[in-house]
Amino acid sequence: MKIVVIGGTGLIGSKLVNKLREHGHEAVAAAPNTGVNTLTGEGLAEALKGASVVVDVSNSPSWEDSAVLKFFETSTRNLLTSEAAAGVGHHVALSVVGTDRLSESGYFRAKIAQEKLIKESSIPWSIVHATQFFEFLKGLADVSIVEGKVHLPPVLFQPMAADDVATAVGRIAVDPPVNGIVEIAGPEQFRLDELVRRRLAALKDPREVIADPKALYSGAKLSERTLLPGNNARLGETRFETWLTQSAGKIAAA
Ligand SMILES: NC(=O)c1ccc[n+]([C@@H]2O[C@H](COP(=O)([O-])OP(=O)(O)OC[C@H]3O[C@@H](n4cnc5c(N)ncnc54)[C@H](OP(=O)(O)O)[C@@H]3O)[C@@H](O)[C@H]2O)c1
Predict the structure, then answer these.
(1) Which of 16, 58, 158 best tests ligand 1's pocket when mutated (most atoms within 8 Å of CB)?
(2) In the prediction, which pLDDT does 251 show?
(3) Which of 21, 137, 162, 252 can bridge 199 by disulfide, Cβ–Cβ 3.0-4.6 Å?
């Protein structure tokens, strides 16, 4: 099966392309540096020729409110139009658990807009809602700095390894479209501040992490369970401690 992975050079995309190829599929990594740009439409028609499935795991280079909205709206529109012309039978997109509860955030308003376009399109679809990636914990600290300290709300979340995200997205891509949302998550729950503190300690990063109930997440106020998946989420295998000691954690630490 020919499967085009938009954002196929990124964290999830590169793992996904490898996994699909290992399973004998013709996986195409589509991104600006492979000549495919979903914002301008460059290279899209050619890349989609003969494709059965398109998986969108791209991300906006800028997370500023208007830039990220423009990215997901324009790229999703271009993609869905090109897919209709090419006769693609399944559009899969990666989004985030709790997206619909996070509309105070400009980033999540953009993901909501992306999902709306997909649901209203003529292409059969599956939207995968993943929880936060272990690989993202340091980045989360970086964007949560107030006067040199990391401020995070002590709410529950259930993060997962990027490798497990790619495995789950790959399975969903080769299955028939669900025309709905599939939630995926890690095997354990943590407090957001607690796990970021552990991640920074493992990286020997001296920044202090403050449990701050008023701190925002990507501009949105969180309550205790905003980031948690529902009971039917498919769970990845990799536990946090295992990931930390594996090469994934060490490479991400570099
Ligand atoms: N971070 C988390 O914890 C988390 C949790 C749940 C869901 N997600 C979702 O997961 C998705 C993927 O995240 P990621 O961390 O794997 O992203 P990433 O590593 O930043 O990769 C982004 C990819 O998008 C590509 N891209 C950028 N602009 C493009 C354009 N104009 N046309 C085509 N491709 C373009 C990039 O290509 P270049 O490298 O060539 O620029 C790259 O391949 C995102 O949609 C995000 O919302 C993230």
Answers:
(1) 58
(2) 60
(3) 137
Q: How many helices (H) and strands (E) does the chain have?
A: 9, 12
SS (HEC) of 173-203: HHCCCCCCEEEEECCCCEEHHHHHHHHHHHC
Average pLDDT on 183-208 reads: 97
CA distance 229 to 98: 7
Q: Positive or negative, the Cα torsion across 114, 233, 170, 34?
A: positive
Is the model's pLDDT at 252 over the cut of 70?
A: no
Q: How far apart are CA 155 and CA 53, in angstroms?
A: 36
**How far apart, in Å, are the Cα atoms of 248 and each of 16, 33, 181, 219, 245?**
15, 24, 28, 29, 8
Reduced to 3 states, what is the DSSP secondary structure of residue 131?
A: coil
Mean model confidence pLDDT for the chain: 96
Measured from CB, residues less than 6 Å from any atom of ligand 1 are: 6-7, 9-13, 31-33, 36-39, 57-59, 61, 75, 94-96, 111, 130, 132-133, 136
Q: Is the pLDDT of residue 253 over 90?
A: no
State the pLDDT at residue 56.
99
